[in-house]
Design brief:
This is FADD protein. InterPro entries: DEATH-like_dom_sf (IPR011029), Death_dom (IPR000488), DED_dom (IPR001875), FADD (IPR016729). One of its GO terms (molecular function) is caspase binding. It holds the Pfam family Death. By secondary structure, the protein is mainly alpha-helical. It has two domains: 83 residues, Death Domain, Fas (Orthogonal Bundle); 81 residues, Death Domain, Fas. 68% of the residues lie in helices and 0% in strands. The radius of gyration is 18 Å and the shape is elongated.
Length: 179
């Protein structure tokens, strides 16, 4: 799982209806009424903000300001902890794929289809991902890796990712995953 998405999911699940309404009000100038009105959850709101690149792994300033504005210091401290990349609590250990997938998402870019083919993903699945996220390269990579992990099940191993990266001559990314 993407650590940022996990953080946003956690924040979303702790927001009351009033707090969500307050956030929508505060974001009316950034997002627009037409896009905001159908939003029913924090997840929907955060998805729009991620699409617009207002929230990203390396850009959480808007999120922090919003949480501060609605007086949710507890959630704000979760964001600050995420930024400082504190190790997760023992009962919240990431699975072995979480970090490598994040690294691959950060560095693979336009070579994502070539990588997924090297991992043996069917072309039909790649086409569906391409159609679902036509203008969101980061999301294509993330969803493709997520699909691969689901498709492979217990056989999905980091070693396979590294092998596929090297076969695509993405050695820099493979080195980053191994580090």
């Amino acid at each position: 799982l993407d650590p940022l998405r996990s953080l946003l999911h956690s924040i979303s699940s702790h927001l009351s209806d009033k707090e969500l309404s307050d956030l929508k009000f505060l974001l009316r100038d950034k997002i627009g009424k037409r896009k905001l009105d159908p939003v029913q959850s924090g997840q929907g709101l955060f998805s729009i903000l991620m699409e617009q690149r207002e929230i990203a792994r390396d850009n959480l300033e808007l999120l922090k300001k919003l949480l501060q504005h609605i007086k949710r210091q507890d959630l704000l401290s979760d964001v600050v902890q995420f930024e400082e990349q504190q190790p997760p609590a023992p009962n919240d250990q990431p699975d072995e794929h979480e970090e490598p997938i994040g690294v691959i998402c950060d560095y693979v870019g336009r070579d994502w289809k070539r990588l997924m083919r090297a991992l043996g993903m069917p072309e039909v699945k790649l086409d569906k991902i391409e159609a679902a996220y036509p203008f969101q390269l980061d999301e294509k990579v993330f969803q493709a890796l997520r699909e691969w992990k689901k498709w492979m099940g217990k056989d999905a191993e980091v070693a396979e990712l590294i092998k596929a990266l090297r076969s695509c001559r993405l050695n820099f990314v493979a080195d980053k995953v191994e580090a």
